[in-house]
Amino acid sequence: MTTSGQQAAETWSDPEFARSWIDRDNQGDLLDMPRRVSAALVAQDRPGTRLVVDVASGPGGFLEVYLDEFPEARGVWSDASPTMMDEAKQRLARFGDRVEFVIADMTDTGWLPAGADVITTSRASHHLDRNSLHAYYREAANALAPGGWLVNLDHIGPTDAWDARLRGVRQRFVPKRSTKSSHHHDYPLCSLADHLSAFVAAGIPDVEVAWRAFITVLLTGRKPA
User: Are 101 and 89 in contact (CB under 8 A)?
Assistant: First the structure.
């Protein structure tokens, strides 16, 4: 596990912090659309999807959308936090044995099953530095089946000027999260250009920003068939 991965994992493994984060999470409505957009894009291209792997899944909201979109698919939930796993098991209980649960940090990807149709992650890669981000995309791409999809919904780091502008406007539309608790970030956050170049370096040049709101983007890339 990388240093940044270890720092993040230690924070999210604290039950009190993890539950506090879930209680204070104010982005559910904002992120519902990009989650569904990504699932629709995959369904349009790969309607026979059978295996969805959600990395750093947290409470399981992203995986839930995909399992609804693909009723015949099974999902793999993964996260470093046992508390998040407990929350996700409740949220995903209606899918029964379609869901497998794996405790793993996103910087330890040796467990990823080969031949996944889709690998998703959400609001987690911003904990990674540039080298770790490239490594994650590379290893995730290797685990995808030919023609599979790599999806990331996360925060990116614009220039200082644009970061200030976008965060300032964002407060008018999205309630500000309490700052009572904090968790590790590597600043500056990786830029959009960093993410796009990492997709290409991982062997997925067919990548696009399918949705964006302020500093949060939906990156969707299709591995060559």
Answer: yes
- Record the pTM: 0.87
Task: Name the phi and psi angles at 205, rounded to 5.
Answer: -75, -15
Find out whether 204 and 152 touch, Cβ atoms under 8 Å.
no
Q: Phi and psi dihedrals of 91, rounded to 5?
A: -65, -35
- Strand-pair partners of 213: 216
Exposure string over 108-136, b if 16+ CB within 10 A, otherwise e: ebeebeeebbbbbbbbbbbbbbbebbbbb
Quick check: 185 pLDDT over 80? no
Mean pLDDT of 37-60: 97
SS3 per-residue string spanning 133-178: HHHHHHHHHHHEEEEEEEEEEEECCCCHHHHHHHHHHHCCCCCCCC
